[in-house]
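Re: the request from the purification team.
They wanted to know what the chain is likely to look like in 3D before they choose a buffer screen. I agreed to run a prediction and write the result into the notebook, where they can find it.
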Amino acid sequence: MLSKETLQRYRRMTTGERLQLTMRSIDENEPFLLYGKTEVVGRRFVLLERENRMRVQNILEGLTRSESDARQP
C-alpha cells in the first residue's frame, strides 16, 4: 500500500511524468522477469496473467456499475 504522500505526489504528476516513471520501472525490472529456473519463471507468468485478469475484471465491473448508475434517474 502506498503512503498518502506518495499518492499525492503521483496525483500531481502529469500523464507524461507517470508514463516516464512506468517506463523506467519496466526497464529496471524486466531483466529479473526471466531470471531463475524455468519452473519459477513459469509460475511468475501464471501469477502475472492471473493478476491481469483480475484487474481487467475489476475495471469492467466498475464500468458496468458506472453505466448503470448513470442510467438511473
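For the purification team: The mean pLDDT is 93.
Please add any questions underneath this entry.
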